[in-house]
Design brief:
alpha/beta, about 160 residues, four-stranded mixed beta sheet, Collagenase (Catalytic Domain), 4 strands
Length: about 160
């Protein structure tokens, strides 16, 4: 199991929704072979995620999810090897407002969109990316595998 710190800055998330994210991320970690690790997920507003997006990505628009991987090495940083401490995977920030908007746009439940974004953020922490077509196919394929194995699938009437 991994330790997940769930932070609801909006105070709008239900306990059931928080529990869903917890269970889904535990499942994703197991699927990715991750044990004895720590991470956080913060649920926030469009305004707050826009400020984060502007500061860290130079894009002054709200986005749905941003991940900050702790295991990515920056310039001049050295990898820590052989530590007895749990792995610190990083932080995921999810806009609850964008989650609601996108669930409506795609014609599926808030929970499905929330799960999609949580898994997406987790896979970024694991080093997956979608900067080119091949990486995008791999990442989004993995997301669907994890969501399907968890049982959080798209309804037949939803848009892809």
């Amino acid at each position: 199991m991994i330790a997940i710190d769930l932070i609801d800055e909006t105070e709008n998330m239900s306990q059931e929704q928080l529990d869903l994210v917890e269970r889904l991320l535990q499942h994703t970690a197991k699927e990715e072979g991750v044990m004895d690790a720590e991470m956080s997920v913060t649920f926030t507003t469009n305004e707050a995620i826009q400020a984060i997006n502007a500061e860290f990505r130079g894009k002054n628009v709200p986005t749905d999810v941003i991940s900050f991987a702790m295991e990515e090495l920056g310039d001049g940083e050295m990898e820590i090897v052989g530590s007895l401490e749990p792995r610190m995977l990083g932080d995921i920030v999810i806009s609850v407002e964008r989650t609601e908007e996108q669930a409506s746009d795609y014609g599926h439940s808030f929970e499905r969109e929330l799960g999609f974004l949580a898994v997406h953020g987790f896979l970024h922490l694991m080093g997956y990316d979608h900067m080119d077509e091949a990486d995008e196919k791999k990442m989004f394929g993995r997301q669907e595998e994890v969501l399907t194995s968890f049982g959080l699938t798209r309804d037949k009437n939803e848009r892809a």
